[in-house]
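Worked Example 4.2. Consider the chain below.
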Amino acid sequence: LVLNIAFFPPGGAFFNRTGISTIGHVLNNHDFISPYGPYYFTDLAYPSFPGKSKNTGLIIGITVCGFVLVVLTISAGVYAYRQRKIADRATKLNSPFSSWNQGDRPQLKEARWFPFEDVKQFTDNFSEGSEIGSGGYGKVYKGKLSSGQLVAIKRAKQGSLQGATEFKTEIELLSRVHHRNVVHLDGFCYDKGEQMLIYEYVPNGSLRAALSGKSRIWLNWPRRLNVALGAARGLAYLHELADPPIIHRDIKTDNILLDDQLNAKVADFGLCIPLSD
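Applying the procedure from the previous section yields the following structure tokens:
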């Protein structure tokens, strides 16, 4: 007769060496009265549960696969979001008026559209050190494009904002103006509720500052005559040769700027109107 007796530790733990020795000592030193003859004890390791091992491996495999799937899903989502942002930016760069509902896209000549974040970088986040002027329209900042070109950025304050159609009409009109004695419009920003005009930077300031002695520029009579002739040529171009002709309506020494050669450039087209109107 073979009798198999299985001993299990309480609580599902494993027997340590002391526990196993104790069990063996008790069995071997106990007298059994058996009608079947002599008896003896042998200790055999209880077979493991193969199903439990397989289940553990399966659980670990499913967990790892699930984690990898979550990581891949998040990575794919981040990649898709970045690609969409890049595509949106490219769309704006190619067609900055695509989100506007009023009117058709204006026909611009050379003037470029700049996103608001780029203009912030050009002006060091519109810092006080970049501010070079102010008026009823808003403030003017000195900026530096990524190409290294210096520009004057005219930022409209909230009370001076125009409607979308009016702003498009203005930049369309200004982009057609090309004359050496008229300040050139390099670009504009119509983004995130902002309206900004980006002009070429004229380094020697206004004629008023030069005449009043506020700047260190000395204008002798030949230079003053040259400035007067330059301003007259700029106005003549606006009145007669611009397409359409433009009436400035606010010509004064504040709005005549001096370049690095002290040539006059007519500026401030915020109050300009086409002659046809």
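Strands lie at 112-113, 131-134, 138-144, 150-156, 185-191, 194-200, 246-247, 256-258, 264-266, 273-274. Helices lie at 17-28, 50-94, 116-122, 164-174, 207-212, 221-241. Compare this with Example 4.1 before moving on.
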